[in-house]
Write a structure and sequence with these properties.
It is a single chain. The chain has a single domain (about 1-125), classed as UDP N-Acetylglucosamine Acyltransferase, domain 1 (3 Solenoid), CATH 2.160.10. It is built from 3 helices and 19 strands. It has helices at about 1-15, 25-30, 165-170; strands at about 35, 40-45, 50, 55, 60, 65-70, 75-80, 85, 90, 95, 105-110, 110-115, 120, 125, 130, 135-140, 145, 150-155, 160-165. The strands form 4 sheets. A 7-stranded mixed sheet has the order 2-5-8-13-16-18-19.
Length: about 180
């Protein structure tokens, strides 16, 4: 009971700090809440963690208004050197399709793994059961519904998997859909 209260207090308290300052102190609070954050993890104050079942590797950035929910019995594992853009949602919970009287049927959870070096652009959504291979790019607004291999680009809704364009040939707008 006391541990749960302490965890909730630590999770809520990061919102009282300036958005892009005091990363070390916010990291300490999140670790005290039960999350496992590596070295130099930077979390913007408006990010929300509705769980302690999150592990984040070294040198990862979690941007403005991100929402991470690992429902009980599941986890979110984010590798090192990952950049997560503003307003991304990463959630492990879902429902079976129910009958006409209640379409959101029985709930279930599935882990999410985001491997090292991924870039998740703004407003992307990653659903439970997904494993993003190392170096994957998820473009703005993409809904990731299935796992990928390494070094690919996830684009759109419904999601398509494409090769990553050569940066020398495609210029600075390569990751936009």
């Amino acid at each position: 009971m006391i541990r749960s209260l302490l965890s909730k207090l630590c999770l809520a308290s990061i919102h009282f700090f300036p958005s892009t300052r005091f990363y070390g102190f916010k990291r300490t609070l999140l670790n005290a809440a039960g999350l496992r954050l590596g070295r130099n993890v930077r979390v913007v104050s408006s990010a929300r963690f509705i769980t302690p079942f999150v592990e984040i590797g070294d040198n990862t950035f979690v941007s403005y208004e991100c929402l991470l929910i690992a429902a009980h019995g599941s986890r979110i594992e984010i590798g090192a050197n990952v950049d997560i853009g503003p307003r991304c949602t990463i959630t492990t919970g879902n429902h079976q399709i129910g009958g006409p009287e209640h379409r959101a049927g029985e709930g279930f959870v599935s882990d999410i793994v985001i491997e090292d070096g991924c870039w998740i652009a703004q407003n992307a959504t990653i659903l439970g059961g997904v494993r993003l291979g190392a170096g994957t790019i998820v473009t703005s607004g993409t809904v990731v519904t299935r796992s990928t291999g390494p070094n690919v680009m996830c684009v759109g809704n419904p999601m398509r998997i494409l090769p990553i364009p050569d940066p020398e040939q495609s210029g600075p707008k390569a990751a936009q859909d």
